[in-house]
Fold Putative MFS family arabinose efflux permease.
Amino acid sequence: MRPFALVWGGQLVSVVGSALTGFVLAVWVYQVTGSVTQLALVTAANTVPGILLAPLAGVVADRWDRRRLMIIADFAAAVPTAVVAALYWTGQLEVWQLYLTTACTAAAGVFHSSAYFTMVPKLVPKRHLGRINGLFQVNFAMAAAAPVLGGILLSTLDVDGVLLLDLATFVFAATALMVVRLPEGATRATEGKAGPRSMLGDLGYAFRYLARRPGLLWLIGFSALFDLLFAFAEVLIRPLILAFSSPATLGLLMFVGGAGLFAGTLTMTAWGGPRRKVSGSLLFTGIGGVALALHSLAPSTLLIAIVAPVFLFTLPIVNGCVMTVFQTKVDSDALGRVTGLARVLWQAATPLGALIAGPLADLIFEPAMRAGGTLAGSAGSLLGTGPGRGIALLYAVIGLLLVLLAIAGSRLRRLRHLEDDLPDAVSDKEPTEPTPTR
């Protein structure tokens, strides 16, 4: 477990640095433009490269040295961050430039995450995968907690200082990868199992692999819909809170929400998730939907501080269960290609949700929930009218859809019995001794 711990620690530092950058730039964009749509476009730019490059990244992760791929990706992601820092320092930074630099950083990130995900089953035995995938969610919990530090750093280091700090974390993560000794077979697919030699052949292999396992296809579809609804909530949470509070309060509430996320990661790490991972994912999706809908009741800091941690507590368990199913049921030497194909849907959900949520909020729900708006006498009588209440109504709808998704998933036999229908693709033996770093 020591090699995994060293790799994970380095990546955790990098994730926190990137989260700080994401927070301060999101605040900057919203304060400069006052537009949810502009904010959503930056979010979309962070995920569109994943749609286009995920299949290729999966093929590369199954073919190339995964350690080297992660190191190259770390440095490639640092370059756009340095460009943004230079533009801000010289007073030339504009919102449209963030679309381009964010897309470049995301492109490097998809290769990095593909290599990281496929390496894990070779670093730890099967019985620990649920706990390890819970530990993965610590990265997201720390990212959610980063806004508190980001709010402090904005008043001390300013935006360019936070960007320079992010650059340092990229270097730290790459250095950790360079010095760690990894078990035999962790960095490259086993010879003879890498599948067809052509890139197109590898993509076709992934299609055929999933076609023979329809339960995995249903799980991909469930995860994509979950990601779509979560993307709505993620892009709308900042304007929802900023409608009745300050950026400092936003940072504090995101920290409180992050505490719930962190508690969920600790629970998943200690517990490993339920024995039946698919059922656990469906159950906690329903619980999260209820908590998300409760965000809409009132423009209250106290309310958000209570329900946001509950919703975010469920997220590591849902994601951890899904990740464990894939790592357990998909051969590790094909994991990059198969999950690369799946990520097309998973990552398409995020920009699609962001692109839809912004115009819905700006053009339909917010005007409808103003005093005298079309919904002021109906939904407005329950949720209130004014700035942010249209977004609150959207939260109620999203929460209800998550509950319906959980119920529908529990009625699908292919999904519900996936773990019984498919044999495990990995054994529970310990990884071999580490090989020297090269």
